[in-house]
Amino acid sequence: MIARHAFRAAVPLQYGIRHYASQPPLAGGPRFSKWIKYPLYGLGGSFGLFLIADSMGLVTGREEVEPDLAKLRSIATGEYKPSKKTFTGGDQGWVDLKLESVEEINHNTKKFRFALPEENDVSGLTVASALLTKYKGPEMEKPVIRPYTPTSDEDEKGHIDLIVKRYPNGPMSEHIHNMSPPQRLDFKGPIPKYAWTPNKHRHICLIAGGTGITPMYQLCRAIFSNPSDTTKVTLVFGNVSEDDILLKHEFEELENTYPQRFRAFYMLDKPNAKEWPTQSTGHINQELLKTVLPEPKEEGVKVFVCGPPGMYKAISGGKNSPSDQGELSGILKEMGYDKEQVYKF
Is 142 exposed, middle or buried (CB count within 10 Å of its CB: 0-12, 13-18, 19+)? Predict the structure, then answer.
């Protein structure tokens, strides 16, 4: 019996067999908004036909069409400005962004929203990729550089969001937590990690600890926002207490919307609630992973790991460098997975 929600009763896993259903069909049939995403030849005529169809009530899903309709209008009037990528990689230097807002999430974690140079800009990140941050204090000999994976959508305009946990004696996390609008921070990227394409794997398993959840969320967001991607996802997320479970609401929404394709399991070192299952207390262990992960021999399985050094050591072994995954060790090797089946963020 493994806990699937911080405040939901644990559900017994019977027979160790998991059946997944496909994504539920969209209500209302085909959306006209998808048609207008194809190249428009003869803009004026196509745009006129669209307006006529709209006035006759033939356009369904109007709430989804409005953004595309506004785009067509701006193109027709010559006011359309394509989005620019803030981060282009390569020889691009550091880009300083202004802190726009700060939202407290729990006792040691906040969400920081940084404004992109222009309102219509997008980050330029791909899935999965991250950004580097840089800070040099007045008494520092060298700047501190740390990677962060934004939790905002890659195509979101005008800003990026970072979820940052404050670590004692962590120079970058402490600096960011001490920031207030409109102070600025240096960024660079994108730093490519694992290039994701729809249905690249049949079933992915995400093993995360603490803020190591952010690249996992980036993968989940890409998969479940794409109707053509039918990848199944199992998340195993370790934290200290219920208050430390980041993005819990977002994962609950995924589990409720795709109950046969997405499942989340939580392990807590020091649970607050007395009703928290004993089996879900402690560190992520082999017993849990054997229960919820697919067999290593199954085809199309990929396991992703991201968390603190101690978790890497126990689960998969650490990386030798950002470009060298190192050898596979720990629990996953003992379970029979091979090096090619595991990716360490």
Answer: exposed
Neighbours of 102 (CB within 10 A): 15
Which DSSP category does 25 fall into? P
Tokens standing for residue 3: 């806990």
Q: Helix (H, G, I), strand (E, B), or coil: what is residue 281?
A: strand
Q: Are strands 262-268 and 232-239 parallel, antiparallel or unpaired?
A: parallel
Instruction: Indicate the residue type of 187.
Output: F
Whether omega before 130 lies within 30 degrees of 0, making that bond cis, reads: no
Which residue is it, tokens 């001490």? 178
- Which pLDDT tens digits describe the chain residue by residue (345 residues)? 445 444 343 333 333 334 444 444 444 444 434 434 444 444 455 555 555 545 545 454 544 455 556 666 666 776 667 889 999 999 999 999 999 999 999 999 999 999 999 999 999 999 999 999 999 998 899 999 999 999 999 999 999 999 999 998 899 999 999 999 999 999 999 999 999 999 999 999 999 999 999 999 999 999 999 999 999 999 999 999 999 999 999 999 999 999 999 999 999 999 887 778 777 899 999 999 999 999 999 999 999 999 999 999 999 999 999 899 999 999 999 999 999 999 999
Give Cα 129 distance to the centre of its chain: 10
Report the relative pairing of strands 262-268 and 301-306 from DSSP bridges.
unpaired
Closest CA to 217 of 306, 310, 140, 116: 306
